[in-house]
Amino acid sequence: MATKSLRAARASKPSLSVAATAVPMPRFRNKVKSLTQTDIVRAVLRRARPDARPFALFVFSGRRAVICGTETKRFVAMSERYPDSLVGTYDARLTVTGLLGDLQGFCELEGAL
Q: 3-state SS of 1-64?
């Protein structure tokens, strides 16, 4: 008996149409903040450890940075497809001054570095 009254109560509620409650998704693609040298140096230094394997840094239009191992299929595919985006390959002997020299022209300049 209780199930019949629940069904009747659900049926009597007004239903909202999907069109009335739909909210458009925000568009983020054109509003992506450009990476700064500080952002990229922090990401690379997190990856560079004394026991780490060599890795490569790719920077795309100053908006996206990709770090991947040099012994991976991803590195081979990206270096063939995007050779102009390759900043360099690094290992445990990485220095910040060397990285900053490589990053010139790939991202926004900052006075702090």
A: CHHHHHHHHHHHCCCCCHHHHCCCCCCCHHHCCCCEHHHHHHHHHHHCCCCCCCEEEEEECCCE
